[in-house]
Design goal:
47% of the residues lie in helices and 12% in strands. The protein contains twelve helices and ten strands. It is α/β, with parallel strands linked by helices.
Length: 330
Amino acid sequence: MRSPAGTVDEHLEDVMDVLAWKSHPTWYLVATNDAQLALRTFIAVDPDSRRDWFRLRELEELPSVRWPLGGSPMALASLKRTDHLGEIVIDSPPQNLYSAQLLADLRAAVDEAADSDIRALLLRAEGDDFSAGAELTVFIGIDEAQASELSSTVLSLIGAIEDLRVPTLALIHGQCYAGALETCLACDLIWAAEGSQIGQIEAVAGSITYAGGTQRIASRIGVGRAAEMVFTAAILPPELLASWGLINRVVPAGSLTSEGRAFAQTLASGPTRAYAATKRMLHAWRSGGVTAADAVTQAEGPVVMRSQDVQDGLVSLQQYGPGHAVFNNR
């Protein structure tokens, strides 16, 4: 490793080999002049300050970055189940940085959830942060074929999460930046812990939201707020984002997982068929407006109306009042 007095080019060479962040966000980088200039700018700080910005370690200590994407015997994201509630848990310490392996493992967990009989899904992460973003090594020096593959991979992952037929809830704590936030935006609901730091920060490194964060923020809180978040790359508190409508609920950090799991369990016990139809209506509205959503409603309404869950729910409501129905996804 270079001494602190090394040149910018020498430090850039080191960082391109092995890099992880100590306390600052990680950002997407691609093979553009703007992105390379941004990285050079980060490196060209005062040598004493540089020690606080970066933590370098041997490349073999980092999760490997492979092309094409592949799995690993030790999954960095996995599906766990409790009755009809599924939990996808990201676990790639120390900051759950998105690597090729994590992306592959996350997609495998989503596919497993889609093929299962779970009736609600919780997305959460272990450690101090949900995820501080992507490993820079995924993007540095990327060629055209790799960039195209990565773009397809991340958008396909987001689509797979959105296509899950069951309600999905993401739990954010600590840092949640860039692609990690885009993953949460693919879920139906987002809760965040007090003290979280949340941002769509790709513009700082000259990049865009490769996993569709810009348009998904716009669908939740409008074009103006989306432009503000993406243009400024601001790191924002969850309370502000909740007031804008991006976050559904802010809860104490110590109870985020327990409260989120309890809420998701109620969803797993709810009218699963009705939830699936509601999701299709919302997705149709996002892509085609009210008219498209009405068409889905017309198609789904009679099916749900005749389902056993609705018939049982009506009898329960008539006999015992609201809140006593038991739904069995029939």
